[in-house]
Amino acid sequence: MYLQLGYVIYRRVLRYYSGEEDGLDMRKALSRDVEKKSIIPLKRPVTPDELEYD
Asked: Which GO terms describe its molecular function (predicted)?
């Protein structure tokens, strides 16, 4: 559903939820980002300890 709305899977977060379920960081570029540079997907999955929370 989200892919049809223009979202892309920016990164996969391994074991984000309890059990073995991964989390998906999905993003959609704003209209002013014509070249969609803000949503270039990462090439490898990340782990929860690599995430930054500000």
From this structure: protein-N-terminal amino-acid acetyltransferase activity
DSSP 3-50: GGGT-EEEEEETT-SSTTPPEEEEE---TT-TT-GGGPPPSS-B-GGG
pLDDT at residue 53 tops 80: no
In a domain, 8, yes or no: yes
C-alpha 45: how far from its chain's center?
10
Is the CA virtual torsion 31, 34, 38, 41 positive or negative? Answer: positive
Instruction: Write out the residue range of the structural domain in which residue 28 sits.
Output: 3-48
- Return the pLDDT at 54: 66
Q: What pLDDT was estimated at residue 18? A: 87
The verdict on residue 24 lying in a domain is yes
